[in-house]
Each structure stands twice: as C-alpha cells, then as structure tokens.
C-alpha cells in the first residue's frame, strides 16, 4: 500500500511551487504534467490548479512507477507537524526538502537581519576607527623622540582611547573580553616585544574581524540569490518569474553600491556603534525598498519584456 500524507497550504503556495519542492520538477520539465495530474487525482476538490487557498488540506504522495494517476488511499496522519513522514521518502530527503522550502519562502528572515549585523560590525571595524588605535603608537613615538612631554602623552593617549571606547560602546567586551580598551591598547614594556606590539596585534585582529563581516555579507548575498533562483524555478507564471528577477537584481545592486559608498566614507571617519547600526539598517532598508519599487515599475511599464528568458536566467534556475 502506498503512503500518503496531508499538507496544509500556506500563504504564497502554488501547486507549481509544491511540485517543485516535493519532486524537483519545474514547470518546464516534461515530468511536471504527470506530477500535476497525480496531485489533481488525489485532490478532486481542486477545480482550478491555479487557485489553491491558504489553509486548504492537500493529499500528497509519491508518484507510482507503473502509472501516474491513482485512486486515493487512506491518509496516514504524520506523528508530528510540520513535516510529513513517510516510509517511501528518506528522512534526509525530507529534511532537505523542508530546509529548501523554508529558504525559498523566508530567505529575507535570514539575509536582512544577517546583512544588518554583518554590515554594522564591518562599519564599526572600519579603517577610521582602527586608525584611532594606531594613533596611540604615533603619540608614543612623539613622546620617545622628545617632541611631547609625558603629561602630554598621557593626556592625548587617554583622549584617543576614550573616543574609541565611546565608539565601540557595548562591543568593547566582545572585542577585548574582561579587559577595557585602555588596558588592552597599552605600550609593551620589556619581554623583548616591540613597544607597539599590543597595538599592532589588536589592530590586526579588528581588521580580520572586519574582513570576516564582509565575507559574511557576501555569503548572505549568495543565500538571497539562491532563494530567488529557487523561486524563479518553482514559479509557473512567466510574469512572476520576471518580477522576482527584477526585484532581486535591483535590491542586490543597490545594496552593493550602498556598501561601497559607506566603505569610502568610513576610511577616514571614525563612527560610533549607533551610527554603524543606523548605516547598516538604512542600507538594508533602501536595498529592500528599491527591490520592491523595481518590481512595481516592471509591472507597470516593462511587463512585456521577458528578462528571465532574454538573460538566460530561466535556463540557470531550473
């Protein structure tokens, strides 16, 4: 006896998307029609395959090898929600299915907050702020060369480190652990170390943290593009494919341009953690808004142009 399971339709679901998630058949696949016929045979209550409503219950099952259209068998309710468990599908395949399904529909819940966090960290660890640490070494060199007095050195050092401490705010504990900024950025005395060894070490570490944040941002862009490609592949409507494509290109391009502009500004401008967060949030909001605006513009003025086919994206996202 074949095993079937229940699936409750969610907002944004379509039969083409469900077929792609479950069987991996895009609408352009020759096997798509057979999968659609199979699902329609299991769900005679569906009159129009293009109209399913959130909250409806669908009966789904593995397509039989001998024939595509079968009579419904008794439903075996899954032991737990949300996944449907069946002996005909490997557990790891179901896990991959749900992971990809979640990614396709909810990538923004990962990429937007993640992009803000990565952007804020990268902004805070900008060359402008790291230069404040290096400035302590320059002040020390002036003192050792007799250009300033010990009192002047202590005052200027404290002023620079106080500014850095204010800028990093609550990140100080993350950056230096149990030590304060003043304890960490100190002159090495004795032990065969150069006088500015501690300064160089922490400056290098913060530079590496900025690079990791930038790499994380690139990874999140890749996640967003992958999710968009999955949506394009699982969508039957050519118009909707193009809407997704236009929105993705506009938001990604805007985000990259905003990131470059902010990076240029931060080279010589030390900023506080609040400003770093505002810049990251603002660039994410602008990118998201530009994507939505581009989608609306395409609907109004450019929906006769098939960009997905023209650029070859349709072949890539299958």
How does this structure look, described?
- This protein is mainly α and 318 residues long.
- The protein folds into two domains: 4-89, Roll (Membrane-bound Lytic Murein Transglycosylase D, Chain A); 90-306.
- Helix content is 64%, strand content 3%.
- It is built from twelve helices and two strands, in the order βααβαααααααααα.
- It has helices at 15-23, 32-42, 91-124, 127-144, 150-168, 172-176, 181-184, 197-234, 238-266, 273-302, 307-310, 313-316, and strands at 4-8, 57-61.
- Strands 1-2 form a two-stranded antiparallel ribbon.
- It is elongated, with a radius of gyration of 28 Å.
- The two termini are 33 Å apart.
- The model is unreliable at 66-70 and 76-92 (pLDDT under 50).
Question: How many domain modules?
Answer: 2
The residue fraction in helices comes out at 55-70%
Q: Which sequence of SSEs, written as H and E, runs from N to C? A: EHHEHHHHHHHHHH
Task: Using the alpha-carbon principal axes, give the shape.
Answer: elongated
Span between N and C termini?
Answer: 33 Å
Strand order of the largest sheet: 1-2
- Low-confidence region ranges: 66-70, 76-92
Largest sheet: 2 strands, antiparallel
Tally of individual helices: 12
**From the alpha-carbon coordinates, what is the Rg to the nearest angstrom?**
28 Å
Let me know the number of strands.
2
Task: Please describe the topology of this protein.
Elements: E1 4-8, H1 15-23, H2 32-42, E2 57-61, H3 91-124, H4 127-144, H5 150-168, H6 172-176, H7 181-184, H8 197-234, H9 238-266, H10 273-302, H11 307-310, H12 313-316
Antiparallel strand pairs: 1-2
